[in-house]
Every structure is written in C-alpha cells, then in structure tokens.
Amino acid sequence: MSAAPPTWTPVPTDDGSYTFYSETFQETFHSREGARQEAEQKYVQQLQIGTWAAQRSPLRILDVCYGLGYNTAAALESVLAAGEGHLQWLGLELDPTVPQAVVSSNLIQEWSPPVQQMLRDLAQTGNHQSDRFQGQLLWGDARQTIQEAIAQNFQADAIFLDPFSPKRCPQLWTVEFLQLVARCLAPQGRLVTYCRAAAVRTALQLAGLQITNLPAPASAFAHRWSLGTIAAWEPLPSLSQAEQEHLHCRAAVPYRDPTLQDTAEVIRQRRDREQQQSELESTSAWRRRWGLQADP
C-alpha cells in the first residue's frame, strides 16, 4: 500500500510571502524572514539576472532543487522587467507535489501573469515554452537527474544551488555531487547558494571552482557573518581572513558520497568519523578567535 502524498500547508514569512515546511527534512523551504525576498536578494540580484540576460541572450539557468519555484520565478520577473533577453532553463526537483501545491494553494498570485503561467506549466507538465522562457523540469533524485543535465551538455550561465541545509540533506552537498553540478557551469558562469558552510565551500573548491562570499550587512547578528557563497571558474574576490581560516578547521571536512547512492545518515556518519580523526583546529576555537557566535 503506497504512502499518502504529503500535505503542504502555506507558512507565512516576514515579507508577506509564503513557504512550506518539510516534515521529511524538518525545515522550511525558505528563510522565515522572507521567502520571495530570499529568492530575489540572494539569487537574482546577486547575479544581476535581468542585466545579464540582455547581454547573454539566451541566458541559461540551472535551478538545483526547484521547490516552490521562487528562484526561477524571480529570475523571469527580472528578465521581463528588463524588457529584453530570454531564459533557457533546466530545473531539478525531487517531489512534484511541491510545485503542484504552490498552484493549488494559489501562492502564484503574487507573481505577474506570464510567471504564473510558467509556474502552472512546470507544475503540471514539467515543461514551459514562451517567447521569453523555455524550460524543462526533471523529476527525481538530483544525484541522478544532474547526470541527465550533463548528458544534454547543458552549460549554465547561472546555477541556483538551493537544497535543504547540509545537516538535513547532506546528499546534495557532497564532493561527488558538486563535482557533477560544476560540470554544468559554463566557463564564465556563476553558481550561487545561500549556504556558507565550510564543508560546502571545501567541496566547491575540490570541484575546481573559485569561491567568494555574499557579505552580510553590518547590522547582522554575530553568527551571520556571511549570507551565502558564489562560485565560478574565474578568479573571484578573496574571502575575508576569518572565512579563509574557517576552511582550515574541522567544519571544513566535506561530505562524501562515492556512489551517489548513500543515505543521509550514512553520509553524516562518514563525515563524523573523518572529523574525529582530523588534526584540524576545532570549529569552536575558530569562532572564539573571531568573536563569532554559533548558529542558533
């Protein structure tokens, strides 16, 4: 007897937009400070998608963990507002009930009509074709569907990397998975993620990418020393001294999944063993030296 599909209840966030809470991963899909705000500020504005699309039309985007579709919706809104350019898009998503629930819950109403139609089409058929957007959504474990993207020789100008947190979903932050993601990044492309974890930054570097941070505002709490990470093949601005040292403590031991088939628990246990055997500085000592608080 098959399990009943999950029920997705809209959860309000501080900017007036809504997200969902995942019982499986024990996290919301977006920051409680603002779901739409997160998509716009951490992904679209950081890469200046609207301007970039006009310069590189078509602009190719790979959305890893499509979820509610907000990152892609915000990207298309930016392109539409710019008045020129269009997107060629590929998305990866495990659970089709999530985008379907966005439509059935009418969470698409805050977007413009063309973007609403895109969200409907992707939720219903996994495809959308219009003058400004051509997209395909691949369903299933991203560790396998990323290989389909590679087989298509999809070279993204922008990659949105947005899985659940490494502690909850380590299988999509491993060295092996990010090496595959990197193969989809164009020579002058940019990868952006909300994640600033040292383990993830180390994995991106092991994939051959350069990294820099999304700086936190001066008013941020002490534990918010960065809002995320940008990666590219090309040289990027250097990390701060504190962040460079972060990559030399035990927090920087990466997640590994040699067969791309291990469970989250097996991946966590493998990293725990490697950390226990490591002679790197403790992460708590690094935090004390820089006066940084642990994440709440």
Helix content class:
25-40%
Largest sheet: 8 strands, mixed
Which strands sit side by side, in order, in the main sheet? 7-8-6-5-9-10-12-11
Question: What structural class do you assign from the helix and strand content?
Answer: alpha/beta
Low-confidence parts, pLDDT < 50 over ≥5 residues? none
Question: Quick one: how many beta strands?
Answer: 12
Query: How many helical stretches?
Result: 11
GO molecular function: methyltransferase activity; oxidoreductase activity, acting on the CH-NH group of donors
Domain MnmC-like methyltransferase: 115-214
Protein name: MnmC family methyltransferase
Keywords: Methyltransferase, Transferase
Protein architecture, described:
This is MnmC family methyltransferase. This protein has 296 residues and is an alpha/beta fold. Helices cover 37% and strands 20% of the residues. It has 11 helices and 12 strands. The strands form 3 sheets. The protein has an 8-stranded mixed sheet with strand order 7-8-6-5-9-10-12-11, sandwiched between helices. Strands 1-2 form a two-stranded antiparallel sheet. A two-stranded antiparallel sheet has the order 3-4.
